[in-house]
Automatic annotation (TrEMBL), chain A:
This is MaoC family dehydratase. CDD domains: YdeM. Gene3D superfamilies: Hotdog Thioesterase. It comes from the Bacteria.
Automatic annotation (TrEMBL), chain B:
It comes from Devosia rhodophyticola. Pfam families: MaoC_dehydratas (PF01575). Residues 24-117 form the MaoC-like domain. It comes from the Bacteria. SUPFAM superfamilies: Thioesterase/thiol ester dehydrase-isomerase (SSF54637). The lineage of its organism: Bacteria, Pseudomonadati, Pseudomonadota, Alphaproteobacteria, Hyphomicrobiales. This is MaoC family dehydratase.
């Protein structure tokens, strides 16, 4: 989230907006990354149990990622507009589970939402917090097409680095010493 | 009812635990990183070198979703296109262990870890695939597990 870790409320739902999947973009994505016949060939796809073309699950999740980043940017703009300094979103260490429940077909409009279900301070990265995000995507009939439990990092606002760590980070910048320190820690 | 597209492919009965699919060496260059990120993951550390240097990753790095997509492509070419695949059920334990920096070369393996018949759908089995993607230093960059449906030949 582009909010400071301290400002993120557990169980608050963020609406990430919708995306209309066209046949062309389903085929384009799958041609590059997931060229199975039911993702790229509408004729052959009729013989599959899906009965027609469906989007690659990885494609729908990538679109969900895009919607999430767009929502973060909008939140950042909103906070700047209020004269506040926005927080910092970090990279993600992983996804616990990602389940495809109903196929996405050409012409489907998928609506994404995100709920932070839990948060804690990072043990491994000082000054950062860990967020557990539940992402849900639903089609125009309200059927869930996928859910994902995404883990992400968010920066702490109220954090002062202990003097010992500051010194270590400073020393690590000295070329030879840095390598020795990296081997020690 | 036979599916003419998959009739001559390997079916559930033809698969064995322990089969290894190789992920061929791929260099993830700066252009690939920024073009994927612009479309799906427009965070500063995937788009802009200066912003990336100041970030937690310390330099321009590929979206983790891109690394996964490249692994998936290797699985389709090396395995799923040759079997009677009936679609993915989902991924689990996806871990981005180290960033893939622009210019890194990745490769790795995908292993058939488990095979079982579906309890609810006798026409399908479930093949479990473990991804292990590494960089040119041999460090792990991505691991994940995919559960994929495959048609059973005899019912």
């Amino acid at each position: 989230m582009t909010r400071w870790f301290e400002d993120i409320a557990v169980n608050e739902v963020f609406h990430l907006g919708s995306h209309l999947f066209s046949a062309q973009e389903i085929i384009d994505f799958a041609t590059e990354y997931d060229p199975q016949y039911f993702h790229i060939d509408p004729e052959a796809a009729r013989h599959s149990h899906f009965g027609g073309l469906i989007a690659s699950g990885w494609h729908t999740v990538c679109v969900g990622q895009r919607k999430m980043i767009d929502a973060l940017s909008a939140e950042e703009e909103r906070l700047r507009g209020l004269g506040q300094k926005p927080g910092v979103a970090g990279p993600s260490p992983g996804v616990n589970a990602m389940t495809f429940t109903v196929p996405v077909r050409p012409g489907d409009t998928v609506t994404f939402s995100l709920t932070v279900t839990n948060k804690r301070r990072s043990n491994s990265i000082p000054g950062w917090g860990v967020l557990f995000n539940q992402i849900t995507a639903a089609n125009q009939r309200g059927e869930t097409v996928y859910t994902a439990e995404l883990i992400s990092f968010s920066k702490l606002r109220d954090y002062t680095m202990p003097a010992r760590l500051k010194l270590l980070q400073g020393l690590a910048k000295v070329p030879l010493l840095g390598r020795v320190l990296a081997r020690m820690t | 009812m036979t599916n003419p597209v998959t009739a001559n492919r390997r079916h559930f009965e033809d698969l064995a635990v322990g089969e290894i699919i190789k992920i061929a060496k791929t260099t993830v260059n700066k252009q690939m990183v920024t073009s994927f990120a612009r479309q799906f993951d427009p965070l500063p550390f995937h788009l802009d070198e200066t912003a990336a240097k100041a970030s937690l990753l310390g330099g321009l790095a590929a979206s983790g979703w891109q690394t996964g997509a490249l692994g998936l492509r290797a699985l389709v070419d090396g395995f799923l296109s040759g079997i009677a695949s009936a679609g993915g059920l989902g991924f689990s334990n996806l871990k981005w262990k180290n960033p893939v920096m622009a210019g890194d070369t990745i490769d790795g393996t995908i292993t058939v870890a488990d095979l079982r018949r579906s309890n609810s759908h006798p026409q399908w089995g479930i093949v479990t695939l473990d991804f292990d993607v590494r960089n040119q230093k041999g460090a792990s960059v991505l691991t994940m597990r995919l559960a994929n449906l495959v048609e059973v030949r005899t019912q």
